Amino acid sequence: MKRHLISAADLTRDDALLILDTAEELSRIADRPIKKLPTLRGRTVVNLFFEDSTRTRISFEAAAKRLSADVINFSAKGSSVSKGESLKDTALTLEAMGADGVVIRHNASGAPHRLAGWVRGSVVNAGDGTHEHPTQALLDAYTMRRRLGDLDGRRVTIVGDILHSRVARSNVLLLNTLGAEVTLVAPPTLFPVSVDTWPCEVAYDFDAVLPKSDVVMMLRVQQERMTAAYFPTVREYSRRYGLDARRLAALQDHAIVMHPGPMNRGVEIAAEVADSPRSTIVEQVANGVTVRMAVLYLLLGGSEPAIGGDVTPAGVSPNGDARRRSGDASRREDA
Q1: One of 44, 56, 135, 290 is an active-site residue; which one?
Q2: Where are the domains of the chain?
Q3: 26, 35, 234, 244: which has the highest count of C-beta atoms within 10 A?
């Protein structure tokens, strides 16, 4: 029976809350002198990255190592992939090596789903093309919850290159599941055709939605994925859709500013905003390790590895007792 995290849409509300609650438990490890648990000792996690990455790859590596898993980092550059080896043949190689979990980032949308049909281990989508990036959405939700509390009824505004953003799609799906109201803001040219089917609102006037927002998430313009001119100039884009000090002042006092990174300072976000107390950008990076620990723990730990079921990390509670959390989430099968 195969269990994976391919899409934010795979997660029920109970699934998502289970991951966030488990991450909260695991965050207590950060205060310990030794920041490791023996939970995944003897398990092997392969980081299979076909696209360049800094934060996500290192975050997954740190998460697996803190759970005492053996980690193999695989990069397409310098591997047999550069010689023409197919994803399926790479998957069969991983299968022969006995990988318990595979974290994959690929430039083709749907690659993690295909991989899940070829390996017995759990597959975690670390970003596939312009499709999804579910663990980024989870760490974003975790960060929001830590700053703002319950997400029910919270208004989240996501601004920028929605067309090429897997982060936007996963956030819309997950935040809707958690009860938040999401509004996407971008030039008309930077919305996907399918946006009408997403569970969110669409707006073109950034200034109009700012005062009502609890969270403003800025997205990078992904020029490396663009094959045409989507707006007149970078300066014009920044003027209409950039978050500067003037727009920051229009936010409610409790509102926070987020960015999944990497940032283009001075384009979608001003340096003074990125470095302000309202910004959670550094927190998001730190929270990414904790949330990915929770995902790996729930998928690979225990006798029945699944997101859902009876799970709470043993040894994480302050008194050292092994406690268990009851989750009603349905277990996921994807193959």
Answers
A1: 56
A2: 8-133+284-300, 135-279
A3: 26
Q: Is 114 one of the annotated binding-site residues?
A: no
Both structure tokens of 103: 């974290």
Q: What pTM value is reported for the model?
A: 0.87
Judge whether 290 is annotated as a binding position.
no
Number of C-beta neighbours around residue 65 at 10 A: 17
Average of pLDDT values for 72-78? 75
Q: Which residues contact 101 (CB under 8 A, 6 or more apart)?
A: 43, 44, 45, 46, 64, 69, 121, 122, 123, 124, 296, 299, 300
| pLDDT the model gives residue 85 | 72
pLDDT digits (tens, 9 = 90+) for 250-274: 999 999 999 998 888 999 999 999 9
Tell the CATH superfamily of the 135-279 domain: Aspartate/ornithine carbamoyltransferase (3.40.50.1370)
Average pLDDT taken over every residue of the chain: 86
- Give bridge partners of residue 182 from the DSSP assignment: 156
Q: Length of the chain in residues, anyone?
A: 335
Tell me whether residue 65 is annotated as binding. no
Q: Residues 164, 142: contact at Cβ < 8 Å?
A: no
Task: Check residue 303 and report its DSSP letter.
Answer: S
Q: For 135-188, how does the pLDDT look when each residue is reduced to its tens digit (9 = 90+)?
A: 999 999 999 999 999 999 999 999 999 998 999 999 999 999 999 999 999 999
**Catalytic position from the list 2, 12, 13, 55:** 55
Tokens (6 digits) for 299: 């998928």
66 in a known ligand binding site: no
Give CA angle at 309 (308, 314), nearest 5°: 105
Decide: 47 and 74 in contact? Cβ < 8 Å: yes
> Is position 114 annotated as part of the catalytic site?
no
Architecture of 8-133+284-300 per CATH? 3-Layer(aba) Sandwich (3.40)
**Is 133 a catalytic site residue?**
yes
The single-letter code of the amino acid at 155 is: R
